[in-house]
Amino acid sequence: MSTIEERIKELEEEIARTEYNKATQHHIGRLKARIAFLKEQLEKRRSAKGGGKGYAVKKSGNATVGLVGFPSVGKSTILNKITDAESEVGAYHFTTLDIVPGVMEYKHAKIQILDMPGIIRGASGGKGRGKEVISVARSVDLILLILDVFETNLDVLTEELESAGVRLNKRPADITLTKTDRGGITVNTTVELTKMDIELAEDILKEYGIVNGTLVIREDITEDDLIDFLAGNRVYTKAIAVLNKIDLVTPEYVEKLRNRFGGWKIIPVSAEKGTGMEELKEAIYQNLELINIYLKPQGGKADLDEPLVVKKGSTVEMVCNSLNRDFVEKFRYARVWGKSAKFDGQQVGLNHVVEDGDILNIVVRH
């Protein structure tokens, strides 16, 4: 009997042999779902047996950023330039053999930057401790894909991350599933489906062993979107590409590379020379979508020199939790001044969303 790994390989080879068109879409969609389901079973089996040594990383600061790239592309030098870390640098492969953290302080934010060992093709399958590296990448708030001007295989990096369930610069599809004990499968849509049809959606559900339930699709999805939803273990992370060692090539060469990468946000730098470091810091800060708010004590003035850094979209409840978890239980109300307030000193509750520059007064029971 074939092992799970062998069955996955056979299915992947079948997909590779099959030309994708309207006539084969259903067949390929079912194969993709079967592969995803088998991979999920394989990971569960490996987890039950116990994996190898992983990387233990304690997250700190307002957000965490991971440096992902091939060996010797300059990750360690970049870390040393933008943080307080001292990561070993060498002109040979695999200098960094562990996760090296550093803290970048920028616009009052403390941002943790993780220098990770270089990955290689096949990392998502475990080559070169790739699984351990990617497991850390799954937990960060932003991924920097570090490229060398002479080794710009951006597609290989993205493919390895995609294979490990990391979705870059995407968001989860607007889908819900309610399982039932009987009644078969019902698929309801609120939009016209142009990339797949309802029959394929039903077939994919069956590949996952779901034969009863109601699936609601609220956007024009692909079969991959539905498989990602059913897998339930995907992470959706922002990413930007950093093109290092630009001091070794001409500006024209850099521009050609920019054009080659299409819609990717590219930050050109020379870590060795320190070129582009401020632009990189600003890009990190902007992509993390951090904002500053100011706390006002009861009967006092807000300290406008020491903001509290929170993520965009944070509610008053999130702010309370970041300060003291007891604040939520003892919360009475809050008052807010700034962009999010309809008027100065507006009284708000825990669900109120704060905005950059807001002044917040939290009132709790004593």
Largest sheet, in brief, is: 7 strands, mixed
Question: What is the fold named in CATH at topology level of the largest domain?
Answer: Rossmann fold
* Coarse shape: globular
Q: What order do the helices and strands follow?
A: HHEHEEHEHEEEHEHEHEHEEHHEEE
State the CATH architecture of the largest domain: 3-Layer(aba) Sandwich
Average pLDDT works out at 87
Spans of 5+ residues with little confidence (pLDDT < 50)? Answer: 90-96
Number of strands: 15
Helix/strand/pairing class, anyone? Answer: alpha/beta
**How many separate structural domains?**
3
Q: Please tally the helical runs, counting DSSP H or I stretches of 4 or more residues.
A: 11
Q: Helix amount, in percent?
A: 25-40%
- Within CATH, the superfamily of the largest domain carries the name P-loop containing nucleotide triphosphate hydrolases
Instruction: Name the beta content range.
Output: 15-25%
* Straight-line distance between termini: 67 Å
Radius of gyration, in Å, reads 24 Å
What is the class of the largest domain in the CATH system?
Answer: Alpha Beta
Brief synopsis:
This protein is an alpha/beta fold and 366 residues long. The chain folds into 3 domains: 4-51 and 173-231, no CATH class; 63-170 and 234-288, 3-Layer(aba) Sandwich (Rossmann fold), CATH 3.40.50; 290-364, Ubiquitin-like (UB roll) (Roll). The protein has helices at residues 4-17, 25-49, 75-82, 130-137, 154-163, 198-207, 223-231, 251-260, 277-288, 316-323, 326-330; strands at 63-69, 100-106, 109-115, 142-148, 166-168, 175-179, 185-189, 213-217, 235-244, 266-268, 290-295, 308-311, 331-337, 346-348, 359-364.
